[in-house]
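Q: Could you predict the 3D structure of Periplasmic beta-glucosidase?
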Amino acid sequence: MNRLFLPRLLPALLAAALLAACVQTPPAQSLSAQASSSPSTGPDTAPTLAAQQERERYVSELMQRMTLQEKIGQLRLRSVDAGPNVDKEALLQEIRSGQVGAIFNTVTRPGMRVLQDAAMQSRLKVPLFFAYDVIHGHRTVFPIGLGLASSFDMDAIARSGRISAIEANADGLNMTFAPMVDISRDPRWGRNSEGYGEDTYLTSRIGATLVKALQGDDPSQPGTIMAAVKHFAMYGAIEGARDYNTVDMSPQRMYQDYLPPYKAAIDAGAAGVMVALNAVNGVPATADPWLLQELLRKQWGFKGITVSDHGAILELIRHGVAADGRDAARLAIKAGTDLSMNDKVYGKDLEPLVESGEVSMAEIDEAVRHVLRVKYDLGLFRDAYRHIGRAEDDPADTEAESRLHRADAREVARRSLVLLKNEGDTLPLKKQGTIAVIGPLAKSQRDVMGNWSAAGKARQAVSVYQGLAEATAGRATLLYAKGANVIDDAEVVTYLNEFEKDVEVDSRTAEAMIAEAVQAARKADVVLAVVGESQGMAHEASSRTDIVIPESQRRLLHALKATGKPLVIVLMNGRPLALEWEHANADAMLETWFAGTEGGHAIADVLFGDYNPSGKLPMTFPRVVGQVPLYYNHLNTGRPFDPENPNKYTSRYFDHENGPLYPFGYGLSYTTFDVSDVKLSRAEMARGGQLTASATIRNTGRRDGETVVQLYVQDPVASISRPVRELKGFSKIFLKAGESREVSFEIGDEQLGFYNAQGRFNVEPGKFNVFLGLDSRAAQSASFTLH
Ligand code: NOJ
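A: Sure. Here are the predicted structure tokens for Periplasmic beta-glucosidase:
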């Protein structure tokens, strides 16, 4: 059930009394309504229900006073980014005349105040709310989504969400377009960086965790913002991973693999849903009544607001389902798209559509009600400046160092790093001798923050070099050389630099840069090569046909390898990369994704062993791009490939190995762990029952450390073919050197059933296999029978 944001502090007996205090002051014209605002329900009614009824009464009363134009105004979300083309006076006039419902891209309280002042001059004084893309941090930037997911640490992820909300709300913001829970199985997509990887269960857990962390119990309270989960739906399954492309998917896969994370976020109480730009099975999401009404509202009970993606309504024309803007507006509103982002058509076309009878007033009212509910829940009718605050309390410097949460960012970031290889215990490094730090990303403060870094400032980010320099100050000598440009392809550089300076091109020749790097490497005891992608290469509109490290940097790596010095590759990237050469040639390799404001410190912590890495991959790393989509929870096929017995007519490639380079759930530590004694509490169970799967995990190495114990389940014989295994639980545990602990997981219908093509959840009797281990190859297994 969709949870509503209503005061839940009220014990039942005090409900009636306290409710009066919670009743929001209606706009001036409806002050009389206050007199009759006492709850119509008695004190025995659950306070949430009473408050819910009060909210509906309030919203209905307000809507009765609104003209059609004012209602339509509530459905318009305007982007105000103070760019040169924004005509502020015209916008203020639109707001004053009740033609704007909400604003995004304004991130300072003074900016919002001017806009809210205009709303307070409108006839009904309906307040604006303010939204922004707070994706992985606000002023303090945390690791990108894939990094957060790699932590497998719900406390750390919640902490990133709480701090994002505190910082964003301190800037007056009310809503973020996050979390993004689009499952993706294709690393070519640039937006993998924003999401949490390929797994449905992990992504669902993270989505729910973040929604709760961002929203808290009551979004009218300071330190909270509403979450609009996105992109509904299935954006991560676009064909060929080419951004904005089409999705065509079986209902079975949709229900089982792609939809649950959105549902989990909604069940956690997400106030909003952002509608995807893509079409699903031929129907653009923005114009899909099945998706936005039947599934979202009727089946899932969603009560919040749906927001179109940027310009998506007008794009219905190019999708080929709308003849013109008017047609697009008609389709979108009838489908259930409430708020029009960067509106071009709702403002112009909805009114004539209602007048002609093509759109009913009831359809407009439904959308307006959703918007007004959000404003009510935010407490904006009580006080339109509730989150913006008073001018005298505005921060003197919005970018002040004191507004950052560096310690939290460092703690979360170090938990997000994944050790991919560590031959001969190359890592951790000692803080002594000479270390050559080489690579175009080593000194970059912009890249370490990653894309969608919101209000974060690059100059406040800690580069890898800076982190290493601070960690070794007075103890080791650091040498530095850029070694290569991130990429040498001039056309790609132009593309990446179009809207934001992404790639800094060094005018020296590639040979000269490599020569300088080699010289530094020769003088060093160990080489740290900080290579990968610029942040803009793993972003919206950043799909790639290949997923290798760009050629300029690969040439650098080859040259560094040739020096014979120990080579540690520190990767920065926002998608799985194909790293066969790097795996074969590096002595050690650390995946750092884009680790955020404190990235450099966190990376140094891990490289020097001040933190023992514990991250695990949330996405499969293929060997070569031709293998994609490659994911761990695939079906077996009728002719599975068996590496022990590699027959010709099996499901395989003849020119490359079948399996991944690094499987889902994989990641090393500076210590070692052993899993033993996997057992189930019972060998037989009836449907509806519960059993416990447990195993003993031992830290068999010489360092304390954390690992992620993973539970996978397989239904080997079912009415339809089921995956070879699916993640159904995980637990991140800390063990001292030599320590062992039993870890257990409950298994019941939820872990055993699956959705069929009609969206029904089935739990079928028969044998089930249970695997417990430290990555998706977990071999330790047990079985039971379900009756
Ligand atoms: C387009 C993106 O697809 C979406 O994720 C984002 O929230 C909006 N732009 C607003 O910036």
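Q: Anything worth pointing out?
A: The chain has a mean pLDDT of 93.
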